[in-house]
Amino acid sequence: MSQGQPQRPIKYGDAFPVSGDHANQTVAPRDAAMMQSAEGLVLGLTQKGGAAAATMHSAADRNEAVGAVAHEEFSAVGEGQGVTVAEAELPDRRVVVESVGGQVVRLFAQALSQGVGQLRERTGDVQGGGELRQGAGDLGEGKLTIGEALEATGLTAGHKVVEQSDASAIEEAEMRASGRSGGRSAAATEKLPADKPVTWEDAERIAAAEMRNNPKLTTHPGGVAASVDAAARINESD
């Protein structure tokens, strides 16, 4: 690239597995600040490495340096819909889902180091910056499983009505996890009788099941297929 040619800003679609209008939004500094605040509110520490805020800060700094955004600027999706960090503790692991405007941008699972806890959920929705409690820590241990991706869907979907496309995706996910060929479909937050790490083939099959039963032939942002796709991308990068 020549020095005289403007550098292309980093969009959400360049950094994360998002779709639609989200993918074309330029990552902005205030979006990154919101995500960092949400991570601090829910997790109680400053995340490093693969956490969403670190990626967003890096992209936003680059975009500010090339003049694509101002230091106090939000993206349209960040300002309009905010960011969310949600956490659930399972018997042996905790699942953390980070979303921008309802679409999953990062999904982590971390082994619990002490004891066996009961299911616990905490969610932080942030519409503006905030102070952080300082600390250090990294999320992401081992491969993410189909069950953990379904748990992530339960955190991001909230009170969304379960449609036929959701049920079909969940059933396909359960079949992929257990290796069976049909039967009862588990709820998105129900523990699967068997589980396995998410692969690209799993993500493609589950997305196809969700799309087949959607009149618009698309997957839902923040839905089952989106969470499984995010998990597959993370597993592939490990």
TrEMBL record:
Pfam families: SMP
Species name: Amborella trichopoda
Chain intervals for the UniProt region annotation (Disordered): 1-25, 176-199, 211-238
UniProt family annotation: Belongs to the LEA type SMP family.
Secretion signal span: none
Repeat listed as a keyword: yes
Protein name in UniProt: SMP domain-containing protein
Keywords from the named record: Repeat
Residue intervals of the SMP domain: 10-65, 188-237
Sequence ranges of Low complexity compositional bias: 176-188
PANTHER family named in the record: LATE EMBRYOGENESIS ABUNDANT PROTEIN 31-RELATED (PTHR31174:SF7), SEED MATURATION FAMILY PROTEIN (PTHR31174)
